[in-house]
Write a structure and sequence with these properties.
Layout: H1 12-19, H2 24-46, H3 49-65, H4 77-96, H5 120-135, H6 139-150, H7 155-162, H8 166-185, H9 193-196, H10 202-205, H11 210-213, H12 221-232, H13 237-251, E1 256-264, E2 270-279, E3 288-290, H14 295-302, E4 306-309, E5 327-335, E6 338-346, H15 355-387
Helix pairs in contact: 1-2, 2-3, 2-4, 3-4, 5-8, 6-8, 7-8, 12-13, 13-15
Amino acid sequence: MKKNSETITDTDETLMARLSQGDADALESLAKRHSRSLYSLALRITADRGDAEEVLQDTFFQLWRKCSQFDSTRGSLIGWLLTIVRRRAISRVRRRSDRFRCTPLRDDVDILPERNGPTLLEHLITRELVSAAFVGLSTDQQDAITLAYFDGWTNEEIAVRTNTSLGTIKTRLRSGLKKMETALSNPVPPVSCKQVQEPATLENILITEQLLSRGFRQRRSHQEEESLHILAEAATPDQLIDAFLRMPLDLCRAGTAGLSLLETTPKREQVFRWTHLAGKLAKYTGGTTPRNFSPCGVTLDCNSPQLFAYPGRYFHYFNDVEVPIVEGLVIPFHVGETEGTIWIVSHEEGLGFDREDVRIMTSLTEFAGCALHLLKLLTAKEQGRNDHPSGAA
């Protein structure tokens, strides 16, 4: 007798076990169970129904082909699927836009520009805040708001579709929006010492939304000018990188600043190499972290600055360093075919980063791009000399 693939008692774990054996009915059941949440996330990120549908299809295709990659000990299935959707949706948005392309510096451009109006980061943070507030609603409230504001249905249409009274639909919308408004008016509090000792998910340590709620420090132009003079004295690209990494130690009160470059190992594994470090973790220069399990990887996937609190709670390898990492601010950059991040971390309780630090670090990515470009040119030139030594026939 054929097994009923939509039995109400089937858990995600049961369906995944069947899926691993090639059961297509299990995939269909998982799609029916999770499609609404996954599609809603894809639509919020891409703002395009066609793109959202393609992201959803790609996600379930990946689930079918690579279901063995899911590890239930690392988290729930829906969390894993939401991560896949988020990354694919962000990648699709990145392909649609060229706004993150690195452009060369000009002499007439202010190196560290003043803040004028909402930045791209603030728009991204606002979207993340709204998403976080939405997740805190009940399923009924989420469904009502999704149908009304993402699908464009009227209250009457929602009532008919869900077989619910019109008054109930209005109440769900009103109470859901009120709850979101309250959540947005009261940002998430800082991580407590007790929480530091508890196991965490990526969502627990990723606190980028707090950048919008923290106070904005005044710009210290004089100190920035002094730092820029030091940069101007750098004689080689390596010295330039080391010089700009020392800047945030003073300007951002960071304990360590670093440059991480994405590379592929001989075993075909992608890792981030800590090529340059300044500060308390300088002894770890040359170390690596995995591309698919690291703050740098998360930041490249999001393609925007990200803030992490006690990252060792989730990325446990950070607990092996001698100095505790309290907060980490990571900035992505892309220079030609080179991808990587620059980042700063604090090692002291109560010392957190804010939007002024984001402004400084984002500007420093231009120095990173310039220095890396020069370093590549010099390396290629030196290689050419070795390949064609003077006096060769």
